[in-house]
């Protein structure tokens, strides 16, 4: 017997009503997913294991003499202006008036980078860089600007990549690329106060065909190099944590912290979450769940009802550690050295050093992001005690900035080692050495749901390691849930209409 259209419409309306969704994780991905699901008419609650929101967006505010002092970004600190989703939410949440320029590596002529003869100013580095770069080439008859291009590309890669990673790939930017560059007019891309640098981001934007001469497995890494060295990066002036906090304020459902999920059981009729609250563990039965915790944390939980392919991607997804160490300094001594912002490539264990703008009252001091490291470099720092780590950074960095040794210059130190942090177990998913087809396959598998359990987070996106990726995945998961119908409902509807295929 075939059901009437009216009966079918009744079936559809039964399945199209508001869904009850529990979001696990109150980072950017979880908060955007909750925000978008509520906009679609669903009932949402957010639970977070830690006692704060924001995930890997973490703004630390130093205090001085009993007052709030300058802020340091120990997590996400910048947004490429081309990340349209992130910029959209900044506008939608009314944060446009907080958008500020972010000055990055080599953007200040007075900043430093290391050489075999000690530290060089960026403005003076081009000749030594060219000589060092050319010495490693099989032929040296390239034009001066081609060598300048290659030298700054190599310097950017060396500054951004962990030391071990750079050692493995430094010869992969080969002569084919330079042969092509040698026939392109580079004058429009000269930058810096003396025109002795190359705007790599602008060049590759205008010449996308050049990308084909780079090894395919370095495509993702090159994207990050270009993003990090772009002149169009922004930040939020009052702290990057304004984004998750403003998102949370727009969510009508409960956003609950201190609710640690320790187990997930996927069943035919819903998802059971085992939640630790202090010394108690309770089981919450949920219709739908969005899991946004990193897989590095998820694989430490008790997981049942997952298929083997999903367990494989959870267990095999690689996360790179990242460590940031910020100094609260008595004064911005680097300004007297002629540095007005941006960052130096320090090398050694320190790697990168950033000079955030001074936006608090002068008597509150200034923040120096003394060290930003990734991968094995971050691991090396996290293996030290805090005292050993801080002493090592001061020792290395004071070669470049001897002012750090002045009594009372460093008022306080704060850091975050994301690789060992309980709620992240890694700074970000990094798929730098994977070809595009493998990256896309892993992304699809990471985002693939398990019945009523859905997944979001930068690890499920085409932009891992960026806020943009977290937002992209959250929007995708909201639409997945909006259109999701349990298998039982689809079978029931097919039987009612006589369209079910029977063996």
UniProtKB/TrEMBL annotation:
SUPFAM superfamilies the record matches: FAD-linked reductases, C-terminal domain (SSF54373), FAD/NAD(P)-binding domain (SSF51905)
Origin: domain of life: Bacteria
Organism the protein comes from: Streptomyces tardus
Molecular function terms, GO-annotated: L-amino-acid oxidase activity
InterPro entries for the chain: Amino_oxidase (IPR002937), FAD/NAD-bd_sf (IPR036188), Flavin_monoamine_oxidase (IPR050281)
Domain Amine oxidase residues, every copy: 28-481
UniProt name for this protein: FAD-dependent oxidoreductase
A Pfam family reported for this protein in Swiss-Prot or TrEMBL: Amino_oxidase
Gene Ontology biological process terms from the UniProt entry: amino acid catabolic process
């Amino acid at each position: 017997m075939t059901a009437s259209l009216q009966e079918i419409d009744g079936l559809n309306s039964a399945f199209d009503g508001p869904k009850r969704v529990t979001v696990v994780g109150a980072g950017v991905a979880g908060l955007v997913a909750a925000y978008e699901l509520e906009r679609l008419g669903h009932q949402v609650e957010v639970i977070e294991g830690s006692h704060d929101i924001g995930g890997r967006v973490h703004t630390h505010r130093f205090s001085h003499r009993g007052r709030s002092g300058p802020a340091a970004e120990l997590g996400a600190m910048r947004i490429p202006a081309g990340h349209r989703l992130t910029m959209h939410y900044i506008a939608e949440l009314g944060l446009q008036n907080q958008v500020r320029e972010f000055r990055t590596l080599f953007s200040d002529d007075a900043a430093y980078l290391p050489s075999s003869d000690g530290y060089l100013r960026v403005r003076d580095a081009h000749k030594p860089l060219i000589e060092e770069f050319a010495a490693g080439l099989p032929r040296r008859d390239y034009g001066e600007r081609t060598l300048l291009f290659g030298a700054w590309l190599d310097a950017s890669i060396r500054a951004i990549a962990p030391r071990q990673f750079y050692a493995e790939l430094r010869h992969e930017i080969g002569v084919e690329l330079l042969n092509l560059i040698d026939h392109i007019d580079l004058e429009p891309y000269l930058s810096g106060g003396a025109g002795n640098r190359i705007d790599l981001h602008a060049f590759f934007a205008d010449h996308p065909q050049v990308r084909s001469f780079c090894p395919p497995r370095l495509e993702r890494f090159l994207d990050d190099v270009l993003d990090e060295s772009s002149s169009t990066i922004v930040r939020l002036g009052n702290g990057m944590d304004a984004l998750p906090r403003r998102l949370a304020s727009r969510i009508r459902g409960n956003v609950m912290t201190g609710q640690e999920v320790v187990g997930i059981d996927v069943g035919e009729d819903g998802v059971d979450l085992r939640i630790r609250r202090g010394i108690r563990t309770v089981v919450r039965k949920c219709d739908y769940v969005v899991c946004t915790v990193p897989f590095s944390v998820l694989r430490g939980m008790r997981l049942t009802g997952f298929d083997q392919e999903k367990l494989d991607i959870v267990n095999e997804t690689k996360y790179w550690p990242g460590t940031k160490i910020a100094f609260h300094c008595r004064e911005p001594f680097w300004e007297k050295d002629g540095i007005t912002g941006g960052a130096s490539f320090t090398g050694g264990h320190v790697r990168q050093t950033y000079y955030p703008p001074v936006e608090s009252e002068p008597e509150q001091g200034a923040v120096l992001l003394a060290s930003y490291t990734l991968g094995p470099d971050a691991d090396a720092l996290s293996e030290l005690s805090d005292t050993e780590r801080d002493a090592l950074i001061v020792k290395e960095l004071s070669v470049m900035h001897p002012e750090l040794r002045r009594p009372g210059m460093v008022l306080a130190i704060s850091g975050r080692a994301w690789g060992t942090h309980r709620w992240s177990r890694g700074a970000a998913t990094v798929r730098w050495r994977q070809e595009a087809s493998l990256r896309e396959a892993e992304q699809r598998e990471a985002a693939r749901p398990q019945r009523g359990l859905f997944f979001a987070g930068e690890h499920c996106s085409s932009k891992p390691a960026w806020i943009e990726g977290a937002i992209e995945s959250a929007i995708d998961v909201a639409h997945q849930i909006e259109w999701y119908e349990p298998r039982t409902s689809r079978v029931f509807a097919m039987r009612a209409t006589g369209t079910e295929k029977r063996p």
